[in-house]
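chain below, 401 aa
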Amino acid sequence: MQPIECRRYRREDAAGWMALHKTHFPPIAEDFGREWSHRDDVTVSVAARGDEVVGVVPFHLRDFRIGPQAVIRAGFEHAVMVEESLRDQGIGSRMMTAAKQFLPDLCDVMMVYRGAERSDGYRFYARTGHHDLTYLRPTVLEQPQPAETAGVRRGDADLLLQREAEFLAVYHSAYRAWSGYPVREPGYWSWAFSSAIYNMHPVEFIVLYLEDQGQVTGYAVAGLDPKGTRLTLLEIATADEDQAAAGLLVEAVGALAAENRCPAHTYACDLSPYTHTLWDKGFRPSPRGSSSMMIMAHVLDPAALAGKVWQENAEARPLEVSIWTPEREAVIHPSDGTPSRSVTLEMKEDALTRLLLARLDLVSAVRQELVTVAGAQEGDVEAIARALPFAPWVYHQIDYI
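prediction:
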């Protein structure tokens, strides 16, 4: 039997990838799958036995906002699979190892949307160096009721695309202080509505929106499955995080679900701007023990990533800052050449991942000994914390691959 080689995807692998995909996931249209696999923002780590594709880890490369001043390139893993007869032989881990060799030329981090923290799938990502960044709680309106939704208009995906600039303005107004999502720019929703997930799981996109003097002031995007048995709130935004407007839109989502005699679902971080409005309108969150999802990440090159996200300040400028974990070490900030000193941040890999992706408050982490520090003087930790600031994250189901 031929040995199994793990390597980067080649165009001739397309047919094998799609054939393997059908064995585990809903089918995708052949033309769509071929076009998707040839996109510049898609690559794959492949396990091949001769010409036969027996395993894949696909990556979608996306510009991802981790903080108000920091955008990185993330390779989102999705639809990972190994041929049934070859599972539990370490092929998945070998594909991950191969990906870590070629991805640094393409992106800064590997990321994945993952659920079920006690599952084999979650443990696979943990073993391959992925760490939790944020938790996305399933939130459900089980028994929606009809409601008057005066003032809330209804349209489709085409309406949003035609008035994209207005919707983008609302989005940026709502989330200017938030991060944790693919960068919103012209063309984003066109991509989102035609992404792979909706080729596998088609939905009818319904846009609920509010206007003031002819301008959009708030909106919610929902997706209704073809059988009308599930309505998903994919995204919501209101100008300046207006909660009263958000309440009207959430009520309209509930009314839409009631029309279709189905529950309404969404995912929400506990601290998202509209989470309490969802709860106030009857959506009920699930405990992590029964259902959960999270974003996990693996940092490919700490020094390179730090160079992109570091926010320089006068107090940090003369410091040579290094990181140390049981797995690796690196200089993440060279001094500017003036009289300087060296500071080393010592931590586990999960803390490093969170620190470089704006998910760790360094000052608090040092107090809790999640991070220890060697060589620091008074004020150094605070200066480094300002250079690598914590940022609140938010999640939108429309971003899911």
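The chain has 14 helices and 19 strands. The longest strand covers residues 52-67.
thats it, cya
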